[in-house]
Each structure stands twice: as structure tokens, then as C-alpha cells.
Amino acid sequence: MTSQVSSPINEEHEGPGTALGSPVGKAEALGSLKELGELGELEERGGLAERGEQRTSDKETRRLDRVIIRFAGDSGDGMQLTGDRFTSETASFGNDLSTLPNFPAEIRAPAGTLPGVSSFQLHFADHDILTPGDAPDVLVAMNPAALKANLADLPRGAEVIVNTDEFTKRAMAKVGYAASPLEDGSLAAYAVHPVPLTTLTLEALKDSGLARKDAERAKNMFALGLLSWMYHRPTEGTESFLRKKFAKKPDIAEANVTAFRAGWNFGETTEDFAVSYEVAPAASAFPAGTYRNISGNLALAYGLIASSSRSGLPLFLGSYPITPASDILHELSRHKNFGVRTFQAEDEIAAIGAALGAAFGGSLAVTTTSGPGVALKSETIGLAVSLELPLLVVDIQRGGPSTGLPTKTEQADLLQAMYGRNGEAPVPIVAPATAADCFTAALEAARIAITYRTPVMLLSDGYLANGSEPWRVPDVAELPDLRVEFASGPNHTAADGTESFWPYLRDPETLARPWAVPGTPGLEHRIGGIEKQDGTGNISYDPANHDFMVRTRQAKIDGIAVPDLEVDDPGGSARTLVLGWGSTYGPITAAVRRIRREGGQVAQAHLRHLNPFPANLGAVLARYDKVLVPEMNLGQLAHLLRAKYLVDAHSYTQVTGLPFKAEQLAQAIAKENADV
């Protein structure tokens, strides 16, 4: 999905709700990122009218600047696919957007139960937005469980589209409804549209030849067609997608297309939907360029491929499947043509062991996981610290501890990334701020790992991984040059003139040791976890040497060149600083905009580098009377700031498995600001 746009971003347009994106396609190699066209549906698309699909009805059309829609149903109802398709067409139409897929934790919870509800929320607008929105304007509820699980999130006046066919006595009793909420007046505060989605779908497919059970499965496409009519979304892309997805089952493909069209036609002809809505493209929201919709995991995978190309190193991924990181393994496995090699190991320990071996052999080595996997990998991360080899450890954080909430988001692995190894084993930490930013963060993590010969932790999370937003496809010339020079010969001359190779003779600027590819004549050296002698790399138990090596490895991390922290303080007179990291960027920024629109003065800064911190961070913190740190944990960054800078950082925390809402943060910031 691409759109060409050419105006500056409007930084002050965030509305009461906000949003963040949905997944689509693949990425590009480095000779030409725009070859991603065939990998990720990069093409020009327009609205219905632009394609000759003229609307001829006399129904009223209202213009909106933003809409938040949530699709909800049983985990077998195809809500994620429905949301993805609506998002894809919205991206191709040119809106700014942000999404929040919300999966059940169970692989297959009992049908019709509250734990089995799957939802997909999309916020799209004609201006720059940052979050998936605080509260849905429209809820599509495919069954009683979906209605009950999501009703509390709806504001008064929201539109509710319900599949009345599923509101049977048994289905309602399963979720605690003694009487039908469609008839007892409990939904009086909302604009309810009762639609027999199953019946209408079966009627549309009566001549398809499909069994009833197979035909019923297309009801999500009927709902998608109806919503596509309501919001003037393009349709050709979805029809093409369905025919491609079910190419081996053309009867299923055509049934889904028929149901989709039937839903669109139902909206056009029924009297229950007297109004449709238009949300214009976000023509002024982006700098000029070619854009596509991208999820965090997809952006991260593309960033790793880009890093491989820009460094000239083959990419090796050693991984073990784990939610929500598995999509990176799935994606990279599709790109052997870019020199990518993927290895699905039998467990987390084998996965990182293989990755570290690949790093020793001269590859750009990566291992992907989530929090529980990081715990299992910790000894090998420590070995990588000792060997001083580049290794990217990608942690897509999720709710814990232990198995915890596999499909829900959290930011609670920061202290594990900082300290979760035995001995003194410092590791740089990088965190992306948005789904699209995962691409840039991957390049930055690779730069640090390669330049300083160290493992690097990249902390994304489930919210970024599964959410999506528009991403400007960069020109190759914009990407950093990561080329590597391997050791090629002796680097030490003894007093008697004898030349030899010392594996721990360091670059005086970066303190990085040479990277010697195995098999290079004359560069043989020892590896292993036992402490090395400075310079020679021989095994050493000398106390003074151990002290020196520990301090040198720490000095190498402390000396990593990272940009100064940028502070957004328009008036220069704010007394409160809101400091975040990772995926809190969107909600924090949306909340700060609201405070400023109401006349409040507040500064904002966001950390990409968490170890080492930017050199000016201490000075920035000292400029403000109050520092508020919102985090999806119990205050881990605040703890680090208080310890290192002796600053009275105030935590605002949440561990619900869901991202912050902008209004929630705005209230917390306003309260903190009022107390200054």
C-alpha cells in the first residue's frame, strides 16, 4: 500500500482518541528498497470514485476527521483478518492510521466465551495521529461475548453493529446475559444496528454450492463489506487479496468476494444505515515520499535485512518460536534471496548458541525471543559479552512473569536487559518508539553491535510488534554505512620483532577488539567463557587482569556514541518533563498535545538508548522541577534514573497488558503539572 503525499506533519492535531497501525507485506533488499513492491503490495490506490465505482444513492454522507472502529468476535470469526483488510484499504486510501490487535491468550478458547474474544481496533484520520484510540466510535460485535467484553469501552452515542443471529439463549447465558441486551434497554445509550449477518451471508451464498458451515465463515467478509460502504473504503484490493489467498480453493475465494460485495450492497440499500461517512486522506500529515502500511515485527525484519545489506554481512537468525516474536522468524525465512539464513532451533538456548556461532563465523547474527526466552538465553549473552562478538538479541516484550500473558503487551524486561546476567556483563539497550521506528532501531542496534563488538538488546513489545502505521520507504542512500573490516593479518609485534595476532588488542577509540573470521591463516585464537588475558586472549585467572577486563568491557559500553536526548519544550518555560521509552511514545505524545491545546506547558523527551544513556540526560533532568516517567511496568526506568542521577523521578505505571490511553495520561500529566 503506498500513497504519495507532500505536506509537513501536523503535530497539533491529535483528537480525543488516537491510534497506531496494522501489518501488511514484506520488506526490501538493499539495492532498491522500492523493489518491495512485489514483496509488500507497494502500489498506487485511490478511493471508490477514483476507480469508477460511483455512488448513486441519495443517502447522506457526512465528513469526519477521524474514526475509531473495533471489530470483535470469537477467535474463529476472523476478526484479525477483517481488521487487517480494512486497515490495508485505509492505508491505500491515504489516511494516517494506527491499530491495536488484541488476541486471546488461549490457542482456542471455548467458542462464545469471554476469554475467547478477539478484537482489532483501528484509528484512522485525515491528520497526523499517534495511537489506536482511547474509545471506539464503532463496535462490530459478532456475538454476545464480543458485546459484553467491549461494551464498557464505548462512549455514549457510539454505533454498535451486532450479529443478531448469534444472540441465542444459550449463547447469551454462556456470558451471563439473563435477557437479551438487544431488547432490555441496556443499550439505550448507543446507536444500535441489529444485523442478521449470518442469515444475510447464507442468503448471499445460497447458490455457491458450499456447505452451510463453510458459507457461515464468510460472515466476517459481509461485515467488512458493510463497514467498507459506511466509510467509503476502496474494495478492489480486498477482492484481489481474497482471490490470491484462496487461489487453491476458488469456490471459497469467490464465496468470500460475494459475501464482501453483499455486505457493501446491504449498506447501500438498507434503510437502517441512512448515513455513510468520509474521512479524507491525510494529505498534510506526512513529508513527501512513498509510503506503505507496516507492522512493528515486519519493520524490524526489514531493518535486519537492511542492516545485513549495508554491512555486507550475511544475516543469520537463530530463533525458537515464541509469542509475540515468531513473526520475525516467519518473515525472514522468506528472504533467502537476500542472503538470509534462518534456523529454528529446538529451544531458546540452542537458538542463541547457533547465533553466537554465526557471529564468530562472520555473520550479522540475530536471535529473537520474548521475556521468558531472554531468561533462558542469559548465560550465552554473558558469553557473547566475554567473547566481545556482535550479536543482536531482539526481545519482543510481553506480560509476565513466566508464561504470563503471551498475547498482551508490557515493558517489564528493562531491568532484565540491563542486569539479567551473572557477573559484570554490560549490554547496550536500544528501544524503538513506534511500529515503523522498529526499522530504524534495528539499524541502530546493528551499528552498535558491529562497531563496538558487543551483544545488543533491542526491546520492542507486543503493542509495537502487532500494531501498524504508515512507513515512508527510505532511499538506500539515507541508510547508514555499516561496512565491516575483518582482521586480515598480525596486529602485534613483540620486542624481538616477531609478529602475531592478538585477539584482544583494542581500537583506542571504540575499545572494540578485532573481528577475525575462522580459517584466516595466522589469526587462530582461543574462545570460551573463562576470563581472557588482555591482548593475547589466553586464559587468565590473574586478579588484576580480571579487574582490568571487567572495567574495560564496562568502559566500552559507557563510551558508545549515542545522540544527545532531544527535548520538545516549545515555550522553553515548562517546569514538568514527561520522559518515556519504547512504545509509550504515541500515548505520551498524544497526551502532551492535549495538555498544550488546553494551555498547559509541559516538556517531553523520549529515550531510544537505555544503555548507555545519552550524555546530556543528567543535564536535561536537572532543568525541570518535576520528571514524570510513564511505563508499562512498575517503574523500572524511573528506578534507573533515580539511582544514576539522584533525581526525584515520579512513576506513572500500568501493567494491564494494554497500552496507555491518551486521555488517561493527559490527566496524570495535568495533575503532576498542577503540583509544580
Tell me the layout of helices and strands.
Layout: E1 4-5, H1 36-40, E2 60-64, E3 66-74, H2 79-93, E4 96-102, E5 117-125, E6 138-141, H3 144-150, E7 159-163, H4 169-174, E8 191-195, H5 197-204, H6 212-216, H7 219-230, H8 236-245, H9 250-269, E9 275-279, E10 289-295, H10 296-311, E11 315-319, H11 326-332, E12 340-344, H12 348-360, E13 364-369, H13 371-387, E14 391-397, H14 414-419, E15 429-430, H15 437-452, E16 455-461, H16 462-466, E17 468-472, E18 492-493, E19 499-500, H17 543-558, E20 567-568, E21 576-581, H18 585-597, E22 603-607, E23 609-611, H19 617-622, E24 626-631, H20 636-645, E25 649-653, H21 662-674
Parallel strand pairs: 2-9, 3-6, 6-7, 7-8, 11-12, 11-13, 13-14, 14-16, 15-16, 21-22, 21-24, 24-25
Antiparallel strand pairs: 1-10, 3-5, 4-5, 10-17, 15-23, 18-19, 20-22
Helix pairs in contact: 2-7, 5-7, 7-9, 8-9, 10-11, 10-15, 12-13, 18-21
